[in-house]
Amino acid sequence: MHKIYSRRSFVKSGAQIIAGAYLGSVLPLDLLAEKKRKINPSDQFRVAAIGINGMGWADLQSMLKHPNVQVVALCDVDENVLNRRKSELQKAHLAADTYVDYERVLDRKDIDAVIIGTPDHWHCKIMVDACSAGKHVYCEKPIGRTIAECRVMVAAQQRYGQVVQVGQWQRSMQHFQDAVNYVQSGKLGKIRLVKAWNYGGSPVPVQPDAATPAGVHYEKWLGPAPERPFNPNRFHYNFRWFYDYAGGLMTDWGVHLIDYALLAMQAAYPKRITAMGGKYGFPHDAEEWPDTLTAVFDFDDFAVQWEHARGLGLGPFERSHGIAYIGENGTLVLDRGGWEVIPEKANNQYKTEPVDRQKAVDNGLDKHTYNFVEAAMAHRPDWAHAPVTAGTQVAEICHMGNIAWLCGEVLHWDRQSGQFQEQQANAWITPTYHHGIAFPQV
Fold this sequence. Notes:
This protein has 442 residues and is α/β, with parallel strands linked by helices. It has helices at 7-18, 29-36, 55-63, 79-91, 102-107, 123-132, 147-160, 174-184, 218-222, 248-252, 254-265, 364-377, 388-407, 423-426; strands at residues 45-50, 69-75, 97-99, 113-116, 136-139, 164-166, 191-198, 272-278, 292-298, 303-309, 321-327, 330-335, 338-343, 345-346, 349-350, 355-359, 411-414, 419-420.
């Protein structure tokens, strides 16, 4: 459905935010509902959310703050979640149809866009189907569970022309852009190393397999993933720690932070990748991916280093997460709370001026979802702050880090062929789909 909104309604909605009327960040859903009852039907931007237990629900709540957005459908394979979210909307005087099968959502001609908040292993299939059905897509990160999935998702957006925004919402935060501008100003001098890290998280205690809970359509949850008994550890939030569904902390947070390493350094793809680590902190918990990992990505004249040590809390510079651009004149340290510059010294003189902490001033998620709606209403994929190409680049690089750890050797990436020189590593590029679901073709 390619609905282009009137210039009058589009400019008016954009002006409301500029004028400070974007009060959705503080308005409860019931007041938002009262405002939305006054929207001209021709100006409504109708949204469905697929996968609404975690970030999919947060994305929807944020998107509803846009003056034109109406929620018309909710979809989840856990009817317990589905009914709870429907009830929450009803308490706010908002109504939406509910579905277990996402295909039925995509069949509706009155839906302009979908939010994909499912576990990672479902992102690719649903996104490709949504684009082919004429829907704009806001897809949670990481964009794809494997390198091949990322590529087919780019192909789908390019073929069908829909607006696709990846949920890397730091791309909509002003202080992140200010930090990038400072890095690119040259004041730090030559940057030879960029570090990114996350030290958060907690162990996942082992639990036995169990009966599938009532209301859960487990086969639909598994989808393209291999068959296995239901286990509460692998369901809902904790899916991200298991090979079949996600890439652990490397892809869960790496796509947020390494993204800004690449953006500031104007980098493409590394030529060499190495990684080491293991289950050093919680050797007996249920997580399959390493709880401790260091991955190094060698670019032409600098390196990016990712590290995580789940459960420690504080990492470098006493921050649980962050990015450090280490230059010859000083280091810029950036996280979601702000940024600062720590200068180097030579002959007891600062090599660059220190910069006190510049605090975050905006709500990244709200700005990110708003940007998506504005781009989709105007049918302008180029307006997206985190387009599918950007989401794919950083997701592929994070997958390279995981693959280097799985293979246990230094890997060499061939930028021309889009493959590793090491054949055992190439086996991890394309997934095998299960349960009669074919790998998407575009």
